[in-house]
Amino acid sequence: MIHSLRQFALMVPDLEPGIEFYQALGLNMNERAPGLAVGFRCDGREHDEIILVKAGDSRKLHHISFGATPEGVGEIEARLTAAGVELLDKPAPDADDGLWFRDPEGVLVNVTPAAAYPDHVPGDFPLANRPGITPRKDERGIIPGKITGRPRKFGHMIVFAKDVMAKVKFYTELLGLKVSDYIEGGYAAFLHAPGDSDHHILAFLPSESPGFHHASFEMDSADHAAIGAKRLLEANGRQAWGPGRHGVGANYFHYFRDPWDGMAEYYWDMDFISGDKEWDVSDWTKKEGMFIWSADGMPPPDFGKNYEAEQWG
Asked: Do the domain assignments include residue 76?
């Protein structure tokens, strides 16, 4: 079935602000169609993890793409066909192959045959010492110049949904994702891939329409996240929330506003679910699910606002 979240695309009115933002975030740019579309990817990745397409007067989510085994693509195609979901042509000649279809709220989704790529490209990860536990002996924990502050992978995204539980039903029953946790009985839902997976690769928040909330990029450590944040903020990036630690997924977080009032997140140290283990699904309160602690307190008032709601009619 699905083994990874592969890519997302946004339609935006102007590419240049996005190029500046995502390069300052630490991603590599790939010019897909001069003046019309650009891609971005983390170091060591062989495909674009973000695509920006110049279109319209404001930002709108274009598509979400998942990677799956060839057998998994076939299984999902059979499920979609049996459920009466229309299969579509790919939206552009350079778009990924595989299945293209819309979810119940009209969001374009792609499932493409792809090899599962490693969670991390090779790197140098110093061990962390704790009281009474000192795995790092006789070596320095900090070496100037080796903390790059660059993301390792596009790990997860959160999107808005008119009906969170209907979305959960579609993505679990037809695409094979699994529920990790809820917030307040389905107010929000977090899903992981059926094999070895981060705690969540996709999550849903309630809104009057679909839409993009944030995309999240895994960092090696708090040091890398702090260096990345410094670079981004010095390049006129905007602080959104954090750093802090979520209850759901247990990951540390730091959010930044993109040029269109969506968000990008640096995260590190997330819960990991093994493919052969049954995960104990919990129902969190909003407060503890969102954060156990945060350096700047409560999330900003517009943290849950869907800035592209009007684009969906």
From this structure: yes
